[in-house]
Design brief:
It is built from five helices and no strands. By secondary structure, the protein is mostly helical.
């Protein structure tokens, strides 16, 4: 993966590198999967009564997880291990498990050579 030049494209960079998580003390981190609840907590914290109440269904996620499962099912175990290592800090910071996006939640055992 790294040999294809993706490591230089900002769109593929881990958030942990882009957002300088060690330099700033973040008060709030929201996730797309829980955006409705996250916005509710943020509004409460900021004392805002509502945010665009006309778009109540704006953040429905639909079949996003199933879509990712279908994409990841075509990847080799080696490439999945490369992804796990490349995004390791993000997976920990944001409480994600790559296995949750694999069909049948198969477990991938990555060797230490990926690090």
């Amino acid at each position: 993966m790294m040999s294809t030049g993706l490591s230089g494209d900002v769109h593929w960079q881990p958030y942990s590198k882009l957002c300088h998580v060690c330099l700033f003390k973040y008060n709030f981190i929201g996730k797309y999967e829980t955006i409705t609840e996250d916005l509710r907590r943020l509004r409460s914290y900021l004392g805002i009564k509502s945010i665009n109440p006309d778009n109540k269904n704006y953040f429905k996620t639909g079949k996003t997880t199933e879509y990712y499962k279908s994409l990841y099912s075509n990847l080799s175990n080696e490439l999945i291990c490369d992804l796990k290592y490349f995004y390791e800090d993000d997976l920990k910071l944001f409480d994600y498990r790559l296995e949750d996006y694999l069909i049948d939640q198969r477990t991938i055992q990555c060797s230490s050579s990926h690090k």
